[in-house]
Design brief:
111 residues; 2 helices; Ubiquitin-like (UB roll); alpha+beta; 24% strand; binds FE2/S2 (inorganic) cluster
């Protein structure tokens, strides 16, 4: 049996979804698989689209630092980046992240 962790998303529609994500899967892939509103993953995880932007609301342990490329790509995200913004294709399900909560930022209608 594949080991999983629990991941919760607060989608762009405000609804919470919790799913079991197999270890090693990217949290972008998991969001797309679970039809989380607002996570698209256009580039398939190649750090080329920023449509997997999430804000880390709660995490059991600090995430690894983002790479320079990830930080640069966050500048191109549709919703403005927040201090704990990440590209979820760069976060892999790991045991220590069990219980992580991610919010999908919304784009202001006036932006
Ligand atoms: S899926 Fe394109 S940057 Fe994450």
């Amino acid at each position: 049996m594949t080991e999983t962790i629990s991941v919760t998303w607060i989608g762009s529609d405000g609804n919470r979804t919790t799913a079991d994500v197999p270890l090693g899967h990217s949290l972008m892939e998991a969001a797309v698989y679970n039809s989380i509103p607002g996570v698209i993953g256009d580039c398939g995880g190649a750090l080329a689209c920023a449509t997997c932007h999430v804000v880390v609301e709660e995490t059991p342990v600090p995430l690894e630092e983002k790479s320079g490329t990830e930080a640069d790509m966050l500048d191109f995200a549709e919703a403005p980046a927040e201090p704990s913004s990440r590209l979820s294709c760069q976060i892999r399900a790991a045991r220590e992240l069990d219980g992580i909560v991610l919010r999908v930022p919304t784009v202001s209608a006036l932006a």
